[in-house]
Amino acid sequence: MRIVVVDGATLNPGDLSWQSLESCGSYEVHPHSTPEETVVRCQQADAVLTNKAPFTKSMLAALPNLKYIGVTATGYNIIDIPAASERGVMVTNVPTYGTSSVAQMAFALLLELTQHVGHHSQTVHDGRWSRSSSFAYWDSPLIELAGLTMGIVGCGRIGQATARLAAAFGMIVIGHRARSVDPALITPVDLDDLFARSDVVSLHCPLTPETTGLVSAFRLTSMKPTAFLINTSRGGLIDEHALADALNRGRIAGAGLDVLSVEPPPADNPLLRARNCVITPHNAWATQAARRRLMQAAIDNLRIYAAGGRQNVVNP
Fold it and tell me: Which of 30, 41, 119, 282 is catalytic?
């Protein structure tokens, strides 16, 4: 089997090894590929691995030898699934690998909003503590999480992992779509009630036509002025202009975002200039431990395919 990794640097910038692919066949790894480069590089490929490099209908038509696409991620919207199915190309993904890492990032964002660790560390390095007349100072209210209510929107694996962290901090946890979850961990509530009651709303649901713009101006207005919004899921869940307006007007206290609707964001994204908005570059998934699991799972999917089996197949 001839294997091409079209954008290997996304998953593996150099701290992991692709050597396990040898068990599946000969392989070549390209750090990045444009659509044009992808078509050229994959002409003789039986199988490809991709993280964010797309495979459109026209690209698939130009790759007659291709029989397998392994997406080294959970989301697979970069692949034209109907076109792949029509050409008999199996498409797989990796649905579980980053649960702990993403839940950890949700709390990293929340703790930055409530403790302002990065800001205060910078002031110390700038010499402010050395010049201070007091042994302690803070520029914003420091907020204790114990006793506050966290609302989880999307109570799957990552939502439940986040809920367990919240419980460990002594928070009260409520959730939307939590009816199959242990009620001792998450109390089910409807969505409007969740936004109104929560001191922290954390998003963990997929982006679908039904969830696009779920965090609307109306829902932001229903939140407490002291509440925080956390998003480690998909940027399109939030009306970004409405959120920027809510932050700038003090309608909510802050937001911690690892995702935006367009990535990388254009310079005019209003959230880049919104007050009390912490943004990280979609790297919640990217701990070395999570990426190692992701790589191994993607290779396992391919190995099982090579042996005539099916694992994590997303098309019929």
Answer: 282
